């Protein structure tokens, strides 16, 4: 993401630290969103279910990202999420933040800038899906969502997110293992052995 502004102190003062465990939802399906979250660690999958029964993964958000912030300005009850890793975050009351935004132009600008950056990032990702190899994109994704040198995002989710086949994702992961970049760990996922090689693949984009 291209957003670098630090979170304003007035927001931090209103946050409550929370921990959510892997594979559970923060929000209840089809319920009004009453809180938003600033993620300190972990990864959350954001998706939407279509009327034809299919699902689209919109994004994965991690440290320094917001979850539910669009509800400050519009209804996003159709959007669903699921934690793919344990998540530590700061919880904020939507109504309270809305009141502060109305009274504080700096805070409103902060969220407007963040949401604009998120939109731009998703647009770039769509372009990258058409113009770069899966090796480059997967290297970037692994670097973005690894936790202390361990990568454990489900291959099915990654294939949906990147709009490629499960088999293609598995092939590239296997290639990374054969080249000494990753090592499979049955209990954890994949251990990153060569961070520099992943960075080089990312820079080739």
Automatic annotation (TrEMBL):
<feature type="domain" description="HTH crp-type">
    <location>
        <begin position="132"/>
        <end position="196"/>
    </location>
</feature>
<keyword id="KW-0804">Transcription</keyword>
<dbReference type="InterPro" id="IPR050397">
    <property type="entry name" value="Env_Response_Regulators"/>
</dbReference>
<feature type="domain" description="Cyclic nucleotide-binding">
    <location>
        <begin position="11"/>
        <end position="100"/>
    </location>
</feature>
<dbReference type="InterPro" id="IPR014710">
    <property type="entry name" value="RmlC-like_jellyroll"/>
</dbReference>
<dbReference type="InterPro" id="IPR018490">
    <property type="entry name" value="cNMP-bd_dom_sf"/>
</dbReference>
<dbReference type="InterPro" id="IPR012318">
    <property type="entry name" value="HTH_CRP"/>
</dbReference>
<dbReference type="InterPro" id="IPR036390">
    <property type="entry name" value="WH_DNA-bd_sf"/>
</dbReference>
<dbReference type="GO" id="GO:0003700">
    <property type="term" value="F:DNA-binding transcription factor activity"/>
</dbReference>
<dbReference type="GO" id="GO:0003677">
    <property type="term" value="F:DNA binding"/>
</dbReference>
<keyword id="KW-0238">DNA-binding</keyword>
<dbReference type="Pfam" id="PF13545">
    <property type="entry name" value="HTH_Crp_2"/>
</dbReference>
<protein>
    <submittedName>
        <fullName>Catabolite gene activator</fullName>
    </submittedName>
</protein>
<dbReference type="Pfam" id="PF00027">
    <property type="entry name" value="cNMP_binding"/>
</dbReference>
<dbReference type="GO" id="GO:0005829">
    <property type="term" value="C:cytosol"/>
</dbReference>
<keyword id="KW-0805">Transcription regulation</keyword>
<dbReference type="InterPro" id="IPR000595">
    <property type="entry name" value="cNMP-bd_dom"/>
</dbReference>
